[in-house]
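hey so u asked for the seq, here:
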Amino acid sequence: MLGFQDECWWSRLAQPDLHAWAAEDPLRLQELAVCKGDTDPKALACYGLLRGDTGGMLLRFVDGRPVSQVTTDYLAWVCGELAREGKEALLLVWDNASWHISRRVRVWLKEHNRRAKREGGVRLLVCRLPSKSPWLNPIEPKWVHGKRAIVEPEQVLTAREVETRACDYYGCTPHEHLQQTDPPKKQPTKRKKVA
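ran it, structure tokens below
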């Protein structure tokens, strides 16, 4: 099966670009603000796979952000879903995000393919898109249309409402969120030279 993979952020506050015909008063979308006490994240990270065979989407939301560990968890889930359908291989097209090309992901892919060849399962063949070329990935316009379809101009949606609307729009079953279990790495601090 051919699949186009990407991640996106679903903002609860920023409004997507929209075009509409208006009679006398122009329609305006403005960025919304959260109320005090709102503990939901301002944006939700989501992994998605656009299927080349059906045109459908496989979505998984993330508690945290896309990192190598979450990427391998997502790939394992996708392979499990496709194996249940009897698929044997996935030609995966994705970009050069740091969590796609990391050593951890490359090692996981190699081990996964060896295990799939030995024990059966879905093998992964990865095709990387050129840097800075999102227009080559057909999933990108799907994200844009989805964000426009779920927009709510009058109120801030809860994180659950954003997820439910996105899954409904793409015809996906909501799944448990992927968990970022690795602690985030601290950025090295620059030390000043003392003369």
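The mean pLDDT is 87. The first strand starts at residue 2 and ends at 11.
lmk if thats what u needed
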